[in-house]
Design goal:
The structure holds two protein chains of two kinds. Helices cover about 55% and strands about 20% of the residues of chain A. Chain A is α+β, with helices and mostly antiparallel strands. In chain B, strand 9 and strand 10 form a beta hairpin. Classes of the chains: A alpha+beta, B alpha/beta. The interface between A and B is medium-sized, with 11 and 14 residues. Bound molecules: flavin-adenine dinucleotide (2 copies). One flavin-adenine dinucleotide sits at the interface of chains B and A.
């Protein structure tokens, strides 16, 4: 067992960090305040190759491992939770299922543009009535001749409206399962601009405010038959497996948010003086910091382990990484919430203002306990494995 | 109080502008049913000025007897003279049961009268029966027979209460309009008409009516509307809401909508029904082209009657709908409007 990162990973990290400090950090406040999608930053990330880190070179990606990708998301999140989730949703939730389940034609058609960042990806599973219970779908796809006709809507879709390629889930029929009729769900690739595919409202959120979260609407939206992703009726499995991977991205985002808040707090308590001393001289401050750092470190190992296990899976499909991913996301998200909350506290009244940024991190952290499966869902995944 | 003295089912035959209100006929129909169980008659109490001619209409719908209190002081509804009229009728004729419509007038009048004659009143009943009280015998407690069992939703409809008034007479209830059935009209039927005037002496308690305004307000708060015609994304365009406007006009309803409609900019936010919009509880809610997302249902599932029109038979709205039509709203809504117009015209 070796706990040091390889030279390549270290180099990648310093590249990501430099980019984050130079390109992302200066805009973070503005992105939050204006709630605007950072288009230019994304274009720059595309140029730098951030949009296709774990995609094989043959499909136009960087051909790096999942760990490198996780480090990228982590470094971005240290300065801007919004920017981190744009990369994570694009990579884990759109590129990854196409890479895993796509036909050779689909991969050739979609991955190069996605991996280069020329196009952005999104993932549409959630509906007003189907959140944690993803089986509760209402969106339908009916085969008419050579086309699938989609009807329904999706809600809370990250990168919505900004994305060009959407992996969408819909009911394609009813099947008998253990004597009961259940919905047969299938996955599809839908392109922006397809007639009948429009956008509803942009949600006004507490945090990650620059990430665009939209409703997707399908009204007699016709897509070619060959845009089905994976086999008919395998959509639920595809969604679940995709989310297993996505959780590593969100875990990395949470990790970054927590670490970013910790970094700022360490600097702050050394500068701020009360009672003639830096507040960092008070033992309460010191112990808080110790707890924060310990939890962040624990989270980091968990996230990295999940990433490495997924890399293992890429080589040998017998390895599973869903429990590692669930544990990493659960722990990292709760760490992020706790650490950012403490960071605000240690900043005192200043921490409550929007100038000091830890409040934004606290707002951003909360969502990591919610999306891509709530913390409760992660506990379900983990305990199911313990008791199987 | 000698309970034995009190006999017969009485209904307050509400009239406005010398036209019998629909609720009066519904109450006669229901009163007839109750009277039969008690082997007695139903008497309508007609209060107003120059209203005697209306007695035949009440007879045609089943009133055996009509007591007319006719006096210029009773031209328009006012609490004091009407309460005096009705309380005097009770004192003189001693009815066993007295039903009043739970209209704006009836809700004002009922409690005044019950307090004046010192008896019990159950408000806004949706079902009435004759039966034993307590419903199940309780050891050591007398079970009285032939009591009026008055059932009404309580606590915002979360609970159903059945209430009796065993020790005082008359047993009074206000009854929700639209729940009871009127009888088939029998042309030429005549009732025994009896005039009674307790005398009216205007005093300071007599309200002075300055002006009566009868216009249809355009901007009804959807939370107050009795009938809501609600449209969703399925309506398709703001122009197409015309279909719903027509239906609303025909049925006397108000148009509301889902969030999808507000988001699309077709309607203003104050018409939005749902978790982040308004919570409504009309008597009838038409959900037209609305899928029935939980955020929408949360705002309207307490409606008394929900009618859904949707082309998708698996839409979740059908899980809460009392009546549903699977089909294209563009065809169904105009047909429905026509039918309602025809029904209103024939009334
Ligand atoms: C929204 C808002 C409204 C406010 N309204 C009012 C108001 O109406 N009236 C008013 O007078 N003030 C008000 N304040 C100011 C508020 O009372 C102070 O911000 C608060 O008392 C903390 O002071 P500080 O900001 O200087 O933080 P600091 O004193 O710098 O404290 C920073 C951190 O160090 C910790 N710390 C400080 N000293 C010690 C110690 N000896 N031992 C251990 N830990 C320590 C603190 O607990 C905190 O975690 C308001 C502030 C805000 C943000
Ligand atoms: C934070 C938040 C808060 C929300 N709050 C609310 C709220 O307060 N109120 C609310 O309503 N929603 C709310 N929503 C939105 C909710 O989740 C749904 O998206 C919304 O209710 C859907 O509106 P709809 O039923 O009109 O549209 P859709 O779900 O798109 O349904 C349209 C329906 O019309 C049918 N249809 C289409 N064409 C025809 C036709 N020709 N004839 C008949 N039927 C047809 C379709 O079959 C479909 O069932 C909220 C969402 C969020 C995220």
């Amino acid at each position: 067992m070796d706990f040091t990162l390889s030279k390549e990973h270290e180099m990648a990290r310093s590249l990501f960090r430099e980019f984050a400090e130079k390109e992302v950090k200066p805009l973070a406040i503005e992105v939050d305040e204006t709630e605007e999608f950072p288009k230019e930053t994304v274009a720059k990330m595309a140029k730098a190759g951030f949009m296709g880190i774990p995609i094989p070179k043959e499909y136009g990606g960087q051909g790096c491992d999942v760990l490198t990708y996780a480090i990228c998301v982590e470094e971005l999140a240290k300065v801007c939770g919004t920017t981190a989730v744009i990369v994570s949703a694009h990579t884990s939730l759109c590129c990854d299922p196409i890479l895993t389940y796509g036909t050779e034609e689909q991969k050739q058609k979609y991955l190069p543009d996605l991996a280069s960042g020329k196009k952005i990806g999104a993932f549409g599973l959630t509906e007003p009535g189907a959140g944690t219970d993803a089986q509760g779908q209402q969106t339908k796809a009916v085969l008419e001749g050579d086309e699938w006709v989609l009807n329904g809507s999706k809600i809370f879709i990250t990168n919505g409206k900004e994305a060009d390629v959407y992996v969408i889930f819909a009911i394609t029929g009813m099947i008998e399962k253990r004597g009961r009729m259940t919905k047969e769900i299938s996955a599809f690739i839908v392109e922006k601009g397809t007639p009948g595919f429009t956008f509803g409202t942009k949600e006004k959120k507490m945090g990650i405010r620059g990430s665009s979260t939209y409703e997707l609407i399908f009204t007699d939206c016709r897509i070619p038959k060959e845009n089905m992703l994976g086999q008919q009726g395998k959509g639920f499995g595809i969604a679940m497996h995709t989310l297993d991977g996505g959780r590593i991205g969100i875990a990395a985002q949470a990790l970054g948010i927590g670490e970013g808040a910790l970094d700022r707090t360490i600097a702050y308590v050394q500068e701020r003086k009360q009672f003639g001393r830096a507040i960092g001289a008070f033992q309460n401050t010191q112990f808080q910091l110790a707890d924060m750092a310990t939890k962040a470190q624990a989270a980091q190992y968990m996230v990295y382990k999940a990433a490495c296990t997924k890399d293992q899976y890429t080589k040998d499909h017998k390895t599973s990484y869903n429990v590692e991913a669930a544990m990493a996301k659960l722990y990292a998200a709760e760490m992020a919430m706790e650490v950012t909350t403490k960071a605000v506290q240690l900043h005192g009244g200043y921490g409550y203002t929007r100038e000091y940024e830890v409040e934004r991190m606290m707002r951003d952290a909360k969502i990591t306990e919610i999306y891509e499966g709530t913390s409760e869902v992660q506990r379900m995944v983990i305990s199911a494995n313990l008791l199987k | 109080m000698n309970l034995e003295e009190y006999k017969g089912v009485f209904v307050f035959a509400q009239q406005v502008d010398n036209k019998v209100s629909g609720i009066a006929l519904e109450l006669i129909g229901e009163g007839k049913r109750l009277a039969e169980k008690l082997s007695t008659e139903v008497t309508a109490v007609l209060v107003g000025s120059g209203v005697k001619d209306l007695a035949d209409e009440l007879a045609a719908y089943g009133a055996d007897k009509v007591i007319v209190v006719d006096d210029p002081e009773l031209k328009e509804y006012r609490t004091e003279p009407y309460a005096h009229a009705l309380a005097s009728v009770i004192d003189k004729y001693k009815p066993e049961i007295l039903l009043v419509g739970a209209t704006a007038i009836g809700r004002d009048l009922g409690p005044r009268v019950s307090a004046r004659v010192h008896t019990g009143l159950t408000a806004d009943c949706t079902s009435l029966e004759i039966g034993d009280f307590p419903i199940n015998p309780i050891p050591g407690k007398e079970q009285k027979h032939n009591q009026l069992l008055m059932t009404r939703p309580a606590f915002g409809g979360n609970t159903i209460a059945t209430i009796a008034c065993p020790d005082f007479r008359p047993q009074m209830a206000t009854v929700r309009p639209g729940v009871m059935q009127k009888l088939e009209k029998k042309e030429g039927a005549k009732a025994v008409v009896e005039e009674f005037n307790p005398g009216f002496t205007p005093d300071s308690k007599y309200v002075e009516i300055v002006e009566i305004v009868k216009n249809i307000t355009d901007t009804v708060d959807i939370m107050d509307a009795k009938i809501l015609v609600s449209g969703g994304r399925g309506v398709g365009s703001p122009e197409n809401f015309k279909l719903l406007d027509d239906l609303a006009e025909a049925i006397g309803g108000t148009v509301s909508c889902s969030r999808a409609v507000v988001d699309a900019g077709w309607k203003s936010k104050d018409l939005q029904v749902g978790q982040t919009g308004k919570t409504v509880r009309p008597s009838v809610y038409f959900a037209i082209g609305i899928s029935g997302a939980i955020q929408h249902l949360a705002g309207m599932e307490e409606s008394d009657i929900i009618v859904a029109i949707n082309k998708d038979e698996t839409a979740p709205i059908f899980d809460v709908a009392d009546y549903g039509v699977v089909g294209d709203l563009n065809k169904i809504v105009p047909m429905l409007t026509e039918q309602i117009k025809a029904a209103v015209a024939n009334k």
